[in-house]
Amino acid sequence: MRLVVLGGGESGVGTAILGKKKGYDVFVSDFGKIKEKYKQVLIDNEILWEDEKHTEDLVLNADVVMKSPGIPDKAPIIKKLHEKGISVISEIEFAAPFTKAVTIGITGSNGKTTTTMLTYHLLKSAGLNVGLGGNIGKSFAWQVADEEYDFYVLELSSFQLDGIVDYKPHIAVITNISPDHLDRYDYKYENYIAAKFRITMNQTEDDYLIYDADDEAIANWLQNNKTKAKLIPFSLSQTFEQGAFILNNNMEVRINQDEFKMETREIALEGKHNTKNAMASSSAANILNIRKSTIRESMSNFQGVEHRLEKVLKIQNVQYINDSKATNVNAVFFALDSMTTPTVWIVGGVDKGNDYNELMPLVREKVKAIVCLGVDNKKIIDAFGNVVDMMVEVTTMRDAVIMSQRLTERGDTVLLSPACASFDLFESYEDRGNQFKRAVQNL
């Protein structure tokens, strides 16, 4: 069997290693440059590869193709594979049959990384033999090749779910859905929503779907479509016979005639959106019968996720916050909603079809100045130019931070929450967040 892997990054190289171990004839092809560290791994494992091109003869003779999440379906090589009827799948789909582990799959427009990390923290604290993968950390396929885990907590993007056929998680979580990546879905929101719900398409009556019952897109989908999975809703405003909710300042989780309670003020993560992430994670933990004392302790000592509302430093009584992971409007909504002091907001980057209108009330109420950090800031300036007192444009993170400091007074907050992808000026949202932290430390 010939396995062709398109993309020589973390998921591609992990898939190549697993494929080789399982006896496939493996070839890796990347249209861009493969990083040195990954090239070395391929060479060490005697796996054939090419970069900066796709040699069609070597790709189109595949029995199965694993496509990295970053490659759009519109790419010419993908179109040719589809025309030839060659199966194009994601890393998750390829690797899942090679492990007996129980998987918990977590998707959503926002909150999925925090919910994934928190769920992993809960399971690990309970002493379970658990791996963490998907869109985060070490590739799932690579771990299936090298490790023997009993459980995996997987963060799954819509792109990874686009490439599944038979994969099903035992526990699926959809944190929320808001318009994102619409450039990859023909600018049709319903296509993006359908991609997220692929997480439950193969689930059976023995599986679970945990979801935000306050989310309009999720509620609409569930009214008009069917899943066999047991439904476990969570909500800040409704209560359920089976699900997670807030009652008298307690988070309550009721699943299979069992009940878990915890005071919301004991949850380490702050903000309403994090209360929801906590509900999703503790619902999963309760399904797996993790001890209540372990859940309570894990919830109260969890440190949060880097680049997600991460407090960096307080300088001259001004708090600097790194929320570089906020790459869409909905994530920024959560960030601004949790601000309690006048805020200088650093925003901008590669716009993925953003509509800034929903931020208007929050910007009026909380934001005193905006620093635009992007190559093209026209949309942001048009949206908020008349709403805030001060608006400046910069092209480096250092200038963004220095300018923000000039615009603050004691007691203010500087918030990096870009609402956009980072690829115009930075390598990744991590690179953007790290540059912000360095610039703040150098003030």
From TrEMBL:
Residue ranges of every copy of the Mur ligase C-terminal domain listed in the record: 307-420
Organism annotation: Flavobacterium faecale
Enzyme type, top EC level: ligase
Cellular component, GO annotation: cytoplasm
The name this protein goes by in its record: UDP-N-acetylmuramoylalanine--D-glutamate ligase
First-listed, main subcellular location of the protein, grouped into a coarse class: cytoplasm
Record-annotated Mur ligase central domain positions: 106-284
Record PANTHER family: UDP-N-ACETYLMURAMOYLALANINE--D-GLUTAMATE LIGASE
The protein's role, per its UniProt record: Cell wall formation. Catalyzes the addition of glutamate to the nucleotide precursor UDP-N-acetylmuramoyl-L-alanine (UMA).
EC number(s) per entry: 6.3.2.9
GO BP of this protein: cell division; cell wall organization; peptidoglycan biosynthetic process; regulation of cell shape
Molecular function as annotated in GO: ATP binding; UDP-N-acetylmuramoylalanine-D-glutamate ligase activity
Lineage: superkingdom: Bacteria
Residues bound to ATP: G108, S109, N110, G111, K112, T113, T114
Keywords: ATP-binding, Cell cycle, Cell division, Cell shape, Cell wall biogenesis/degradation, Cytoplasm, Ligase, Nucleotide-binding, Peptidoglycan synthesis
Subcellular location: Cytoplasm
Family to which the UniProt record says this protein belongs: Belongs to the MurCDEF family.
Pathway participation: Cell wall biogenesis; peptidoglycan biosynthesis
Reactions catalysed, as given in the entry: UDP-N-acetyl-alpha-D-muramoyl-L-alanine + D-glutamate + ATP = UDP-N-acetyl-alpha-D-muramoyl-L-alanyl-D-glutamate + ADP + phosphate + H(+)
